[in-house]
Specification:
Radius of gyration: 19 Å
CATH architecture: Orthogonal Bundle
CATH superfamily: Tetracycline Repressor, domain 2
Order of helices and strands: HHHHHHHHHH
Mean pLDDT: 90
Shape: elongated
Low-confidence stretches: none
Number of strands: 0
CATH topology: Tetracycline Repressor, domain 2
Number of domains: 1
Helix content: over 70%
CATH class: Mainly Alpha
Number of helices: 10
Strand content: under 5%
Amino acid sequence: MATSTSISTKDRILATAAELFAQRGFSSASLQDVADRLGITKAALYYHFDSKDEILLTVLRPYLEAADEFLDRHSADQDPHLLLAEYLDLLLEFRTALDVIAFDRSVLNHPEIGEISHGQTLRLRRLLAGEAASTERGVAATAALGAVRAAAALTSNSSDPAVRGVILRAAMAALDSADWSGD
C-alpha cells in the first residue's frame, strides 16, 4: 500500500524524470539516470512505475489533458490573436512538457503521444485557419503555431511581457501573411 512517503517519492520520480527528459531527451535519459539523480535504486522506480513509457505518459498527461481542454473551450470564430495568446500561456504553464515534446523526436513517434499531439495540432490549425481553409491559410496557421511553439521552447524569458509581445506579433505576422479575403 502506498504511503504518503511513497506518494512523495512518486512525485519526485516524475519531477526528476521530466527534468532529465527535457534536458537529455526521452530516448537518451535512462531510468538509471533518474534513479541516480534521486539517490534511489532502479528497483525503487519500478515499485512506482512499470516502465519508462509509463513515466513519460504520466509526465505529459497533465499537459495533454490541458491542451484538450483548451481546444474544447475555443471555436473557429474566436479572435486568432486571443487564441494564440492563450495557447502561448498554455505552453508556458507546461514548459517542461513542451521541452520534452519539442526536443526529442522519439516522443512524437511514441504511438499514444504522437497520435494525441498530432490530433491536437490539427484541431488548433483548424481553429486558426478555418474548417475548409485554403492551402495558403493552412500553411500560415501552421507557421503561426510553429512560431509560438519554437519561441516558447527556445526563449528562456518567453513569459516576459515584452518578449511575449514579440512572440505573438511574429505569430500573427505569419498568420496574416495568408490571403483571408475569401472569408
